[in-house]
Specification:
The complex is a heterodimer of chains A (106) and B (411). Chain A has a five-stranded mixed sheet with strand order 2-1-5-3-4. Chain A has helices at 24-30, 66-72, and strands at 3-7, 13-17, 50-53, 82-84, 98-100. With 106 residues, chain A is an alpha+beta fold. Chain A is built from two helices and five strands; from the N terminus they run ββαβαββ. Chain A has a single domain (3-100), classed as Beta-grasp domain (Ubiquitin-like (UB roll), Roll), CATH 3.10.20.30. By secondary structure, chain B is an alpha/beta fold. Chain B is built from ten helices and 26 strands. Chain B has helices at residues 13-24, 66-71, 131-143, 154-165, 186-198, 246-250, 296-310, 374-384, 392-395, 402-408; strands spanning 5-9, 30-35, 74-78, 81-85, 90-93, 98-100, 103-106, 110-112, 125-126, 146-150, 169-174, 201-205, 209-215, 218-224, 229-231, 234-237, 241-243, 259-260, 272-274, 279-283, 289-291, 322-327, 330-336, 343-349, 354-361, 364-371. Chain B has a five-stranded parallel sheet. Chain B has a five-stranded parallel sheet with strand order 9-16-10-11-12. Chain B has a five-stranded antiparallel sheet with strand order 22-23-26-25-24, with helices on both faces. In chain B, helix 1 (13-24) runs parallel beside helix 7 (296-310). Chain B starts with a strand and ends with a helix. The chains are: A alpha+beta (106), B alpha/beta (411). At the A-B interface, helix 1 and helix 2 of A face helix 7, strand 22 and helix 8 of B.
């Protein structure tokens, strides 16, 4: 079971377990990680599951599709490593991955 | 004022979110969450689309895993409320138990408007509301050769797209003259009509049914209003919902197309809130007329408002309504309410299936419908969150882009 670490904007760390095939967003919401309301539940419709994938892990995540990049255009404080975590599907390779949370989702 | 106990009737999106938000806000009193379906609270939107196609497993429907309820001290009861004793502030459950409350939250949702024709009770006739509905429907949908869908609203069309993708012949009967007529503009309806027809879906507008016929207890045909017999081995209907307001009605609460609440989402009893699909609230985006909205956004934002009020932070509800539906490769997102719009400006191209329709009323932008233009939807949500200044004349100018306008008109 891969482990993921979410780091809130204030530095608080949350290390959670995720299932292969589950979305990174769901692993976070299942563990009640704050700051990821994920209102639409993973339908790529709301952009409230915005995360920054730690630079060291960028080559372990699937590339974003146009639907996601369009939504991200309006995410709060978008950066080059911004991703909607509902679109990141957990794989074995992501074990140990670090994700940073923005100061606000919208 | 600290409340010792909150009882929430209904464990759908709204009821669950009240419980979760209360704990997030630091509420330490007792929370009892009453759900009348088996299992853990789950999200409904995938039931009519991704879940039926097997793209989402059932554990992925859950809002939270089982241990969440224990660790957050949320008492999830599989039961249903049968009466409210307002005088003694107690809810009576079907099991006979009575729960005392300091505050009661009614999140009872809505049920499918039943299909009022003979044959509607046959086992191959489905509305889609619960996971049990979807679980029973899924295997039949995979095998069905001839599917008749009653109603070309969101649910009906989501299912039509699924059935077409699974290889069935799909026939949609709709009393109105175009798809999703209550929810979207003529321009957007037309895009979806053409897309569905390209997937092989056949539409019959201004057409209803008189009965469903069976052979050996199995659906075999749908008889239309004009007397035609459409072959069918599966019928799915989505013809609107009816708010579950009976409990509130019997308790003497004010009712007006659902449970009537004020801007703080309080019912006519100050110890009882109502929210989500069942609540008729004064809607800022609808000239403060009492309005009932059936959406995930409405349920979640209502819940946050109620939880904040119960934690001593009352605020009038005013969140911008937004909606989405996924049909085949099309994602339709709507920001705002287009009720009574009198002009539109269209951006993008229907032929490319990338279209945004800006809806104006009295020269004021009231809603933006976007198909496969997510950036426009997000820009629209920013623009509409404040009293919008965008005029139809500006939007109609050559080369206008919603995102550019939004960036240039931030505070």
């Amino acid at each position: 079971m891969p482990t993921l670490t979410f780091i809130e904007h204030n530095g608080t760390e949350h290390t959670v377990k995720g299932d292969i095939g589950q979305s990174v967003m769901q692993a976070a919401t299942f563990a009640s990680v704050p700051g990821l309301p994920a209102d639409c539940g993973g339908a790529c419709s709301c952009a409230t599951c915005h995360t920054y994938v730690d630079e060291a892990w960028l080559n372990k995540v699937q590339a974003a599709e146009s639907m996601e990049t369009d939504m991200l255009e309006y995410a709060f404080e978008r950066k080059d490593n911004s991703r909607l975590s509902c679109q990141l599907i957990i794989s074995e390779e992501m074990d140990g991955m670090v994700l940073h949370l923005p100061s606000s989702q919208f | 004022m600290t409340l010792a106990s909150v009882v929430i009737v209904g464990a759908g999106q709204a009821g669950f979110q009240v419980a979760a938000s209360l704990r997030q806000e630091g509420y330490t009193g007792s929370i009892k969450l009453i759900g009348d379906e088996p299992g853990l609270p789950y999200q409904r939107p995938p039931l009519s689309k991704a879940y039926l196609l097997g793209k989402i497993q059932d554990t992925n429907l859950l809002f939270r895993p089982a241990d969440f309820y224990a660790t957050h001290n949320i008492d999830l009861l599989h039961d249903s409320a049968t009466a409210i004793d307002r005088l003694n502030k107690r809810v009576v459950l079907a099991s006979g138990e009575a729960l005392s409350y300091d505050h009661l939250v009614l999140a009872t949702g809505a049920h499918n408007r039943p299909l009022p024709v003979p044959g509607a009770d046959l086992p191959q006739v489905f509305g889609i509301k619960t996971k049990a509905d979807a679980d029973a429907l899924a295997p039949l949908a995979k095998e069905a050769r001839n599917v008749v869908v009653i109603g070309a609203g969101f649910i009906g069309l989501e299912f039509a797209a699924v059935a077409a993708a699974l290889g069935a012949n799909v026939h949609v009967l709709e009393l109105g003259e175009r798809p999703m007529a209550r929810a979207v503009s003529r321009e957007m309806s037309e895009l979806f009509r053409q897309a569905h027809e390209a997937w092989g879906v056949h539409f019959d507008f201004r057409q209803g049914l008189t009965r469903i016929e069976s052979d050996n207890g199995k659906v075999c045909a749908v008889i239309t209003n004009d007397g035609r017999s459409l072959p069918a081995d599966l019928v799915v209907f989505g013809i609107g919902v009816i708010p579950n307001a009976q409990l509130a009605t019997e308790a003497g609460l004010d009712i007006e197309n659902g449970i009537k609440v004020d801007a703080n989402l309080l019912t006519s009893d100050p110890s009882i809130s109502a929210l989500g699909d069942v609540a008729s609230f004064p809607c800022l985006q609808n000239d403060e007329q009492h309005t009932r909205l059936e959406s995930v956004q409405n349920a979640i934002d209502h819940a946050r408002t109620v939880a904040a009020r119960l934690m001593g932070k009352p605020a009038a509800y005013g969140a911008l309504p937004w909606f989405w539906t996924d049909q085949g490769n099309l994602k339709l997102q709507i920001a705002g309410l287009s009720n009574g719009y009198d002009s539109t400006v269209v951006l993008g191209s229907a032929a490319d299936q990338q279209l945004s329709v800006l809806c104006f009323r009295n020269e004021r932008l009231v809603a933006v419908e976007s198909c496969n233009r997510m950036g426009d939807h997000m820009a629209a949500r920013k623009i509409l969150a404040r009293p919008p200044k965008l005029t139809a004349a500006e939007a109609a100018a050559e080369g206008f882009e919603l995102k550019t306008w939004e960036a240039a008109n931030r505070d």
